[in-house]
C-alpha cells in the first residue's frame, strides 16, 4: 500500500508541475502567447488567460491533493482541446506524424485519467 501512495504522490507532483509551468508560460512567454492567439479561436487573449488560470489553479490543487478529482476535469478538457486544435492538423501528413506530435499530450491525458480514478 505504501508503494501505491508513493506512486500516486509522484504522479500528482509530475502532473501538477507540467500544468503550473504551462499556465505561467502562457502568461509570461510572448512566443507561447502568440501560438495560442494564432489558433483562430474567438477572444484568444481572454481564452488564453482563462486557460492559464485554470492550469495554475488546478495544478496547485492537484499538488496539494485538495479537490484533486474535481481539478482534473478542466485539465482533461484542456488536453482534449489541445490535441484537437494543435495535433489533429498533423493527420494531414499521415498517422505517424500525428502520433509523434501528440505523444506527450496523450500521456498527460492518460495520467489525468489515472488521477481522476484514484482521487477521492
Automatic annotation (TrEMBL):
Protein's recorded name: Putative membrane protein YphA (DoxX/SURF4 family)
Compartments it resides in: Cell membrane
Topology term for the membrane: Multi-pass membrane protein
Keyword Cell membrane listed: yes
First-listed, main subcellular location of the protein, grouped into a coarse class: membrane
Transmembrane domains' residue ranges: 46-64, 71-89, 95-116
Signal peptide (residue range): none
Sorted UniProt keywords: Cell membrane, Membrane, Transmembrane, Transmembrane helix
Family affiliation: Belongs to the DoxX family.
InterPro entries, alphabetized: DoxX, DoxX-like_oxidoreductase
GO-annotated cellular components: plasma membrane
Amino acid at each position: 500500500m505504501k508503494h501505491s501512495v508513493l506512486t500516486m504522490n509522484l504522479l500528482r507532483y509530475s502532473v501538477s508541475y507540467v500544468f503550473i509551468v504551462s499556465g505561467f508560460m502562457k502568461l509570461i512567454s510572448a512566443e507561447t502567447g502568440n501560438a495560442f492567439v494564432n489558433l483562430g479561436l474567438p477572444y484568444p487573449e481572454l481564452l488564453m488567460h482563462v486557460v492559464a488560470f485554470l492550469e495554475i489553479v488546478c495544478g496547485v490543487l492537484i499538488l496539494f491533493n485538495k479537490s484533486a478529482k474535481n481539478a482534473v476535469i478542466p485539465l482533461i478538457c484542456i488536453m482534449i482541446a489541445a490535441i484537437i486544435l494543435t495535433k489533429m492538423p498533423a493527420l494531414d501528413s499521415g498517422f505517424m506524424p500525428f502520433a509523434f506530435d501528440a505523444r506527450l499530450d496523450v500521456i498527460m491525458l492518460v495520467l489525468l485519467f489515472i488521477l481522476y480514478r484514484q482521487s477521492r
